[in-house]
Amino acid sequence: MIRALLVLAVIFSGLAAVLTRGHEALGEVLRTTTVSDLTNGHFAQHVDKTIFGAVPRSTALDGLVTGLEYRVLGDAGPQVRAGCGDWLYTMEELRAERHDRDNMALRAEMLQRLVRAIKQSGARLVIVPVPDKADQVEARLCGIRATQSRLRDQFWNELARVDGVLVVDLRNHWPKPGYWKTDTHWDQTGARFAAEQIAQAVAGTLDPRQDAIKLVDGSMRRRTGDLARLSGLTDAPHLLAPGPEQEREVKVDVSRSGGLLDDPPEPQIILAGSSFSLNSGFLEYLETSLSREVAQVSQPGGGFAGALIETLDKRAGSLEKVKAVIWEWPMRSLVSSPSEAEKNFMRQIK
Question: Which of 39, 142, 262, 297 is most buried by its number of CB atoms within 10 A?
Fold first, then answer.
């Protein structure tokens, strides 16, 4: 009852605002409405958004309007898709762009050049493509299919043609859902599964030396998803926003061999990934699964190869002492526009 009254209050205040200062926007809706809009329900949705848009602005009211648009219209903004049961998805995984195939072809060529560059360093390359959340949790998309995710799956053919690397396919036996409801990234179950799969793949390439690494579980803490922030739902009232999620804090306790004054050995493994490698305790799960420390050089927003290219550019000398480089990247990054670093790499490395 409270929620219904709240919705009506904002709608009536919006109607009043439309009549006093938003009539031009409403007139534009009426002028551009087609017969198809009237039959498929889009007309009512356009009017609703015009009413919400006419409500006077403040942080509290913005949050209220965003929450109402989410609950009433199922609208989480232009960059986020609202699924069922408060599941949110990034539109990056769902939309098709004109240059998608060209960008995938560019990434296929970049893949070959990156593999050659790592081979020349003497390190073993471990490639870890991260499946789309939309593909792995498609049942909660609420009425649409993860078509674009399956188109990007064609890139697995490119990976199969690369020699001398280890490719970890996380799609097999993925612990569903494995992703946060209001975030683009894997949750701790997914992160732990990925770490264990990678550890199994690289075990044979490492020397017998191991550190005594113990995973230490901490307290539970509230986690705010990046998609909730991106859609503005963090400012919405509790009743109108997706419920908060809880994450357990994790860290590792490392006991090294040798004396107190001895220099710690340099890590034999480099993790050059995207924001997935920086989320949900993935590094801690990986170090525990490998029983050794890992050098973290991953980048938030690193996309397909940002961290790996920077490693080759600025830390090439360190690769001579490394046994394995773990290259993690999200499948959705295959179709993103190339970064300046990627363009420079393609110009310099043939």
Answer: 297
Residue 220, SS3 per DSSP: strand
Tell me the pairing of strands 80-82 and 88-90: antiparallel
Cα 221 from chain centre: 20
Across the chain, which distance is largest between two alpha carbons, in Å? 80
Cβ distance 275 to 239 under 8 Å? no
* C-alpha–C-alpha distance, residues 288 and 285, integer Å: 5
Q: Which two tokens stand for residue 326?
A: 């773990």
Q: Is the pTM for the entire model greater than 0.85?
A: no
With beta carbons less than 8 A apart as the criterion, state whether 110 and 309 touch.
Answer: no
Q: At what angle do helices 42-54 and 59-68 cross, to 10 degrees?
A: 170
Q: What's the alpha-carbon Rg for the chain, to the nearest Å?
A: 24
DSSP per-residue letters across 111-153: HHHHHHHHHHHTPEEEEEEEPPHHHHTGGGSSS---HHHHHHT
The answer to whether 291 and 267 have CB atoms below 8 angstroms apart is: no
